[in-house]
Amino acid sequence: MPAYKKTARQEQLGNTQIRIPARNGDITIGAGNCTIIAGPCSVESRDKYLEVAMLIKDMGVDILRGGAYKPRTSPYSFAGLEEEGLKILAEARDLTGLPVVTEVMDPRELDKVTYYCDMIQIGSRNMQNFALLKEVGRAQKPVVLKRGLAATVEEWLLACEYILNAGNEKVILCERGIRTFEKMMRNTVDIAAVALVKELSHLPVLVDPSHGTGIRSLVAPVSRAAIAAGADGLMIEVHQNPDQALSDGEQSLTPEMFSSLAKDIRKIEQLKVS
Fold first, then answer.
1. In the prediction, which pLDDT does 70 show?
2. Residue 35 and residue 29: Cα distance in Å, rounded?
3. Measured CA angle at 93 (ends 52, 194), to 5 deg
4. How far does Cα 208 stand from its chain's mean position?
5. Which domains can be identified in the chain, with CATH numbers?
6. CA–CA distance, 65 with 127 (Å, rounded to integer)
7. How far is CA 118 from CA 139, 201, 215, 270, 272, in A?
8. For residues 68 and 92, is the Cβ–Cβ distance under 8 A?
């Protein structure tokens, strides 16, 4: 038995399916379909966020994303609207009927995030913030756990174990690229890890090709590769004007690019089912 006892496939023979309540029909992650999570990196303003949410709501997106609290390398970079951003996310859910997911960075903000949002994200920088993982484990909201930027697969699965062990079994793993010696991309997407984790664990696995590559033109091909490797879904950044985005514009798709990619993904999804 591996050290990640509850996360391991030996603990559960079938695949875990995680249901996200939604007004237009619940979303199930891990049921053999490809769940698409999309939206801008940050909630920059009410008008901008609601605009992009309405633009993409009928383009194949299942869940809206957007950062209200943003961990930034520089303290001078835009770090999110905090609770105001959470309120905007909740308003977008009411307008579109789509569930929303956002990152939590501090246990003291957890109650606010769970109040306004349908899913919680643990970002790469907090994958081994064990105090935060334990608190999220006590919250009964689905959790997206991103792989740390320098984490091994085993460390990633053991971080997940903290959440499961605290009582929250609704965890979705997310490969978002790891830091290697390659400098032409933001990170290196570990496609092999997707297939490996699907062997080792019963939990759903997503891929974030936006953070994984950091390059807009690579998002689509890496998305297709992720689905081929067995990913249960994708997390994609979309902005109506990427060149003016306050964070991660260089890796964000335009709504038109996202629409084209979403159509391709649905075609691949149908081939997998058939």
1. 86
2. 6
3. 75
4. 6
5. 9-268 (3.20.20.70)
6. 18
7. 11, 24, 29, 27, 28
8. no
Q: What are the respective helix, strand and coil percentages of the chain, to the nearest 5?
A: 40, 15, 40
Closest C-alpha among 32, 37, 96, 46 to residue 64: 37
- Which of 76-80, 155-159, 194-198, 256-260 has the weakest average pLDDT? 76-80
Torsion on CA atoms 63, 69, 71, 76, rounded to nearest 10 = 130
pLDDT at 95 over 60: yes
* The pair of three-digit structure tokens given for residue 4, joined into one six-digit string: 């990640």
Q: Which residue has the tokens 């246990």?
A: 107
Q: Could you write out the DSSP letters of every residue in 35-49?
A: EEEEE-SB---HHHH
Q: What pLDDT, in 10s, does the model give residues 148-187?
A: 999 999 999 999 999 999 999 999 999 999 999 999 999 9
User: Are the C-beta atoms of 141 and 114 separated by less than 8 Å?
Assistant: yes
**Backbone phi and psi for residue 127, each to the nearest 5 degrees, phi listed first:** -55, -35
Pick the closest to residue 60 from 83, 86, 34 (CA basis): 34
Supply the mean pLDDT for the chain: 95
Place of tokens 């998305």: 223
CB 3 within 8 A of CB 154: yes
C-alpha closest to that of 56 among 220, 269, 253: 253
